[in-house]
Design brief:
The chain is mainly α. It contains 14 helices and no strands.
């Protein structure tokens, strides 16, 4: 519960800082840069190092990849049918295809499923959502940003993406025990992600933007919060027969609202920043209701 209160508080502080003009308009760019270059790499170095895979975690690892694939296909079709601009389609693919499986997902898992559900949540986040963002997410951002860079440029963005570099380093260091001071430093740096990200989103929230983005916002959130989790439920629980706590937590993670880091990537690539930030802000608020519904629906598997 403390984590959820922290998220809400930081979001409201971001809104207040904008309203009172206590921070410059360029503040979100600085906050987002800190998150990408310091907070996320620190979390990656900390958590990937300690992951111990079990066969039952396979569903958790593949969920985000399936989710992003569904989102890319759905929004590609929707974009053509509704004549959406490339930046808008790209923003929907990123925010509608990637869930907030870490600093909202993990506290929600602990709230609804207890501490024993966190292992599956970490696998779903680190080997699922994070890897998907670092590869397919960066590719999508590059393809839908202005200029449509070539394959070499996109590959360079992936390889030089700070969290991806941290991932490679973390995998190499798995056999090495971190000293106590290193763990403490990485945890402190990683803990900055949620507060800074929510302040950034709150700072950029403009309720006036709802008028021009209503249809696309409804489309994106209906897919992210309802349709995608339902399709994954049919696939994982119905077709593949996934059952038990790991399956429940995996599908619960699939129902998370849009990933804040995905919105940051969309903003940095100028992919409809207004819509991307609305997807996160409104999605988080709605998810407190939709996640309760999904928890109830998933009890039977």
């Amino acid at each position: 519960m403390t984590n959820l209160i922290l998220l809400v508080t930081c979001f409201l502080l971001g809104v207040a800082l904008h309203q009172t003009r206590r921070m410059p308009a360029s503040a979100p760019a600085a906050l987002n840069s800190f998150i990408i270059h310091i907070s996320l790499p620190a979390l990656t170095l900390l958590y990937i190092h300690d992951i111990r895979l079990e066969p039952e975690f396979a569903y958790a690892a593949i969920m985000a990849w399936l989710h992003f694939g569904l989102g890319a296909g759905f929004f590609w079709v929707a974009g053509r049918a509704l004549h959406l601009s490339r930046p808008t389609t790209g923003a929907l693919m990123l925010t509608g295809g990637l869930g907030n499986t870490s600093f909202l997902g993990l506290p929600m898992i602990e709230t609804f499923y207890g501490h024993e559900g966190l292992a599956a949540g970490i696998v779903a986040d680190q080997l699922g959502s994070f890897l998907t963002l670092s590869t397919l997410g960066i590719i999508t951002a590059g393809l839908y940003s202005s200029g449509a860079p070539d394959a070499r440029t996109i590959l360079r963005k992936i390889v030089l993406f700070p969290p991806f570099i941290a991932l490679i380093v973390a995998l190499v260091l798995i056999p090495v025990d971190y000293p106590v001071w290193a763990v403490a430093v990485l945890k402190r740096l990683g803990d900055t992600l949620a507060p800074l990200a929510l302040v950034s989103v709150g700072f950029q929230l403009r309720l006036g933007h709802l008028a021009g983005n209503g249809r696309n916002l409804v489309l994106g959130l209906a897919f992210k919060l309802l349709l995608a989790p339902f399709v994954l439920y049919l696939l994982l629980a119905g077709v593949l027969g996934a059952k038990g706590l790991v399956a429940q937590v995996t599908l619960f993670e699939a129902a998370m609202p849009p990933m804040i880091t995905a919105a940051i990537i969309a903003t940095e690539h100028d992919l409809d920043p207004q819509l991307a930030n609305l997807m996160v802000a409104v999605g988080i608020m709605l998810s407190f209701f939709t996640l309760t519904g999904w928890w109830w629906a998933l009890r039977g598997i």
